[in-house]
Specification:
The longest helix is centred in the last third of the chain and has 28 residues, at 131-158. This protein has seven helices and five strands; from the N terminus they run αβαβαβαββααα. 62% of the residues lie in helices and 14% in strands. It has two domains: 4-128, Alpha-Beta Plaits, CATH 3.30.70; 133-186, no CATH class. It has 187 residues and is an alpha+beta fold. It starts with a helix and ends with a helix. It is elongated and about 95 Å long.
Length: 187
């Protein structure tokens, strides 16, 4: 019969599984206590929640959350990194920790939108630019044709034929306004 503590742990894990946008499994074998404290601090700063999980309880939580693909994350001693906002945050934080400390903290697998990611997929995810940079690149790509059109129109209006066309349009608009005033006064 399950204890109340285990029931609560399963409930907490289920909640995390349901809320996260990405979950990444890591192997923490060989990591000292002081290194684990450092890793947890780095993860917290990156907005990532780290939990060392008991495999059986994690499997129960995944089943309750109706996300069976999460079962592939646990294999041996496992720490799961949950991110609720940024998809790249866990992979980027682990990669940064490994680079700076030169310690092993391997990412085994991840789950993103129901898809299981390999460790190489996670490394590629870590190399993606931040969300703000990607949004800027998309905005720049969308804005480029409009900026080009404006440049062409300005160049066209700057040459003599363009100025003539512009003056003709302005003169025509003035004539229309004058005629409208005449009609209003006559009515």
């Amino acid at each position: 019969m399950p204890t109340q503590k285990k029931i609560e742990l399963v409930r907490e894990l289920r909640d995390r599984i349901e809320r996260c946008v990405i979950a990444v499994a890591t192997d923490f074998r060989g990591v000292t206590v002081s290194e684990m404290v450092q890793i947890r601090r780095i993860m917290r700063e990156a907005g990532v929640e780290m939990r060392v999980v008991k495999n059986r309880l994690f499997l129960l939580a995944a089943k309750e959350a109706k996300q069976p693909e999460m079962a592939e994350l646990v294999d041996g001693p496992t720490a799961v990194l949950f991110s609720y906002d940024d998809v790249t945050a866990p992979a980027r934080a682990v990669t940064e920790y490994v680079r700076s400390s030169r310690n092993e903290f391997p990412m085994r697998k991840g789950v993103l939108d129901g898809q299981v990611l390999s460790s190489s997929d996670l490394r590629e995810l870590a190399d993606l630019p931040p969300r703000e940079v990607l949004l800027g690149q998309v905005a720049g790509a969308l804005q480029a044709p409009v900026v080009g059109l404006i440049g062409l129109l300005n160049a066209m209006l700057a040459n003599p034929a363009g100025r003539l066309l512009n003056d003709s349009v302005n003169t025509f608009a003035g004539l229309l306004e004058s005629r409208a005033k005449q009609l209003e006064e006559g009515a």
